[in-house]
Amino acid sequence: MEYACLPVGRDFMRDSLLQYQPFRAFNVIDDFNREALNITIAKSITSKRVILELEQLIQWRGKPKSIRVDNGPEFISQSLRDWCEDPKRQIELTFIQPGKPSQNGYIERFNRTYREDVLDRWLFEKLADAQAESNRWIWIYNNERPHSSLNNIPPREFLLKYGKLHLPADQSHEFATFQQDDDGDVQFEEKTIFLTVAK
After folding, report:
1. DSSP β-bridge partners for residue 5
2. How many domains does the chain have?
3. Sign for the pseudo-dihedral over CA of 127, 132, 133, 135
């Protein structure tokens, strides 16, 4: 499976509430179809929080073959390395070159769009308000907003049209959506995850 993460740490997206209280956004996108999979809003996002979010994402979306990250403190931590190298996961953890954000171009583009559409557009009084607006925006971004790099169709439509799923031999159906629960028999193609932090 292929999905990209906007990292935590020094490269995370940062903003502040109306009362000047800072917060961060940990964003995760699918590199294949540019689908926004998660935006986590919190005052602080540690490597443990990154791992928690990735575990939840794997339960829903499947295990990636590899994760590419920048050199933020949350990504160079031993805990993330140990989590990736665990025998039940065996996810390859690789790093972009320092000072080369172009190696995470999809995420950089996503961060810019998210900042313009949400963070620069609204003033939030509470973290819950920022999270709620981010969740509303994700739905529009994934289901309604056409992407020129995806033949001018939204990410979900592109995934359903061109995405590949590994299905058990006795099943021939594909999911209508990836937000529904399954019985654990469907496995997504393992590809690459990209973790980066937005500035």
Report:
1. 28, 195
2. 1
3. positive
Residue range(s) defining the domain that contains residue 14:
3-195
pTM over 0.70: yes
Range list of β-strands (E), 36-189: 36-42, 66-69, 92-95, 165-166, 187-188
> What 3-state class would DSSP assign to 6?
coil
For residue range 8-36, what is the model confidence (pLDDT) as tens digits?
323 468 899 988 899 999 888 888 888 89
Show the tokens assigned to 121.
């557009």
CATH classification at residue 54: 3.30.420.10
Q: Which amino acid does the sequence have at 196?
A: T
CA-based nearest residue to 1, from 28, 40, 41: 28
Condensed to tens digits (0 to 9), the pLDDT of residues 119-131 reads: 999 999 999 999 9
The DSSP symbol for 147 reads B
Q: Which residues pair with 131 in a beta bridge?
A: none
Instruction: Show the CA angle centred on residue 55, arms to residues 179 and 2, nearest 5°.
Output: 65
